[in-house]
Amino acid sequence: MRAKAAEYRGGLAALSVNASLDEVLVQAEQHDAAATTAGERAGAQLAIAEACRRLGRVDRAERAWRASYRTARDAGDAAAMAWALWSGGTLARQRGRYPLAHRLLTRAAATAERGNDVVARGYSLAGLAETGRVQGDFAGTLRLHEKLLDEARAHGQPRHVVWALEGIAQIHRHNGDHDRALTLFTEACAIATDSDDQRGRAWALRGIADLTSLRGDVDGALELLAEAEQACRAMRLEAALAYNHKMRGNVLYRAGRYAEAEQVYAATIEEFTRIAEPRGESLARLGLIKSQSHQGMSPDEVAKTLTELHTRFTRAGLHHAVDMVNAARRDLLP
Description:
Among the domains are: about 1-115, Tetratricopeptide repeat domain (Serine Threonine Protein Phosphatase 5, Tetratricopeptide repeat, Alpha Horseshoe); about 245-334. It contains 16 helices and no strands. It has helices at about 20-35, 40-55, 60-75, 80-95, 100-115, 120-135, 140-155, 160-175, 180-195, 200-215, 220-235, 240-255, 260-275, 280-295, 300-315, 320-330. Helix 6 (about 120-135) packs antiparallel against helix 7 (about 140-155) and helix 8 packs parallel to helix 10 (about 200-215). It is globular.
């Protein structure tokens, strides 16, 4: 079964899940200009929001999802309202606004139920699971991810299956069960490949590369990341590409190639800053200061930067990232 991009609705439903975001944006703008019904307009505005979000054009994405929601609300279309709220919640998570992301995604799930849209409900709950996971709530989100995985399999949604598998794999990786995580990432990669979901495949390859690196195979990990990077560039997946590069920095750092890792992290900070992705930018800064510490940066400067990152992660509610800073402090400072 081929993966479908459920967020492309109405006249845009024929768009491939692998369509370049530039292509999506052009077609969505054309549909918006030609729309004759509220449903067509809401769908076009949603696609504009999603294309702009993934391209890092966050201000326009914010305007577009809100316009989609207002159009759908005025038409009394609960399903379209749910999709707009899902887009807004996903954007809020990307921008580091986690309480807002929880509120919007919770509303999206409830509105999808009212509109009898099973897929929108699943996407919204998956968004809640991912938001909790990046904040470090592994126990609670594991149960939700597993529930959503069962639902996605039952409804025959390969793209959603891949998302759930990757979320579960990330949790097992963070909990130290690398064998289980690798099995899940490998399954996700196989399903994404079979269903021609290049976005899901790129994220799965990143996860496999991470675990391959942890097993000591540096060259193998870098090759996997290079393969995933091709898909990210072809589809203009700016956030996925930045996280791919951050993982490259992680692989080089683990291998003791600190000067190379420093260069990669510094470039990745610029990528995340450009697309207004504060979590990724802060994690790249953590990698950068760790690399610089191994190359002779003064302990006082390292301590100052780690304190700043600790404060930033604490304020954002990123509990796992706080733990990472504490671990770095133990490893790097006397």
